Amino acid sequence: MIHKNVDQAKKASSCSSKTPQNDADKQRMEMDAMIKDNLARIKHKFFVLSGKGGVGKSSVSANLAATLAKKGYKTGLMDVDVHGPSIAQMFNITELLDIAPDTKQLLPRRINENLTVVSVQALMQDKDQAVIWRGPAKTGIIKQFVGSVAWGNLDFLVIDAPPGTGDEPLTVVQTIPDARGIIVTTPQEVALADVRKSISFCKTVKMQTLGIIENMAGYTCPHCNKHIDLFKSGGGEKTAKAQGLNFLGSIPFDTRVVESGDDGVPVMMYEAPGPFKDAFEKVVENILKQIEV
C-alpha cells in the first residue's frame, strides 16, 4: 500500500510539473506563430548595427526610416537598444504605447502616414529609470516587439539595436533571419577596429550585409567654409574594400542633426537641403539599388 501511494504521488508530481512546461511551450509556439505572421507582411528588414557606441547608429536608423517613409514607403522603426534607447527622443515619443482592444497587440506610435515607431522607452513609466535586465529578458522583449506589435503591411522595417555583438544583435538575427545588415562607423581607427568585429559577426551568423556607412566624416565651418576632418576620413571606404563590402557613402557632421534629435524631428524630415541631407540621400539610393522594392 505504501509503495502504491508513493507511486501515485510521483505520478501526481510528474503531472503537475508538466503543466507549467506545457504552458510555456504553448506560449512559445503562439509567439513563434505571431512572429512568423508579422514577418511575412514585411518585405525588407534592415538591421543597423555598429561595433561601438557613439558613432551615430541611432541617428542613422532614425533618418533612414524617415527618408524611406518620405519616399512613400510604408516603414517601421524598431528600437531594441534596451539600456540606452534614444529613438523615442528623436521622434518626440513621450507617452506609453497603446494596446489594440481587439487583438491585444501593441500599437506602434504613428509619426506620419508612412512611418510607425516602437521603442523600449515607450514601455516605461519612468523615462530615467535604469533597465537592469539579463539576457532572457532582453531576448523576450525583442521577440515581443516583432510578434506582439501590430506592424501591419510594411515595405521596410528598420531595426536599431545596441552596439556590439551581444544578446540583442544575436536575438535580432535569430528572430529575423532574413534581416540585412547596414554597418555604421566613424573614420578613426578605434571605431574601425570595432566595426571589423561587426563584419565578423555578420559573417559568422551568415547575415547578408548591404554595406558600410561612414558617419561624421567631416565638417564644413559655417563661417569660413573650410572643411575639417574631425575624425579623419576615408577609413570606412578603405575598410569596406578590404572586407569585400559595398561602401554606401560618407555622411558629414552637421550640427542640425544634433538639434533635430533634441527637437524630436529627424533632420531628413526637414525640407531645407544641406550637406548632411544631400549625402544621406545618396546613401539611401545606394541601399535601394541593392534590393527589389
From TrEMBL:
It comes from the Bacteria. Keywords: ATP-binding, Hydrolase, Iron, Iron-sulfur, Metal-binding, Nucleotide-binding. InterPro entries: Mrp-like_CS, Mrp/NBP35_ATP-bd, P-loop_NTPase, YlxH/NBP35. Residues 11-22 have a biased composition (Polar residues). Residues 1-27 are annotated as: Disordered. ATP binds at G51, K52, G53, G54, V55, G56, K57, S58. The keyword Hydrolase applies. One of its GO terms (cellular component) is cytosol. SUPFAM superfamilies: P-loop containing nucleoside triphosphate hydrolases. Residues 1-10 have a biased composition (Basic and acidic residues). GO terms for molecular function: ATP binding; ATP hydrolysis activity; ATP-dependent FeS chaperone activity; iron-sulfur cluster binding; metal ion binding. Belongs to the Mrp/NBP35 ATP-binding proteins family. Binds and transfers iron-sulfur (Fe-S) clusters to target apoproteins. Can hydrolyze ATP. HAMAP family: Mrp_NBP35. Homodimer. This is Iron-sulfur cluster carrier protein.
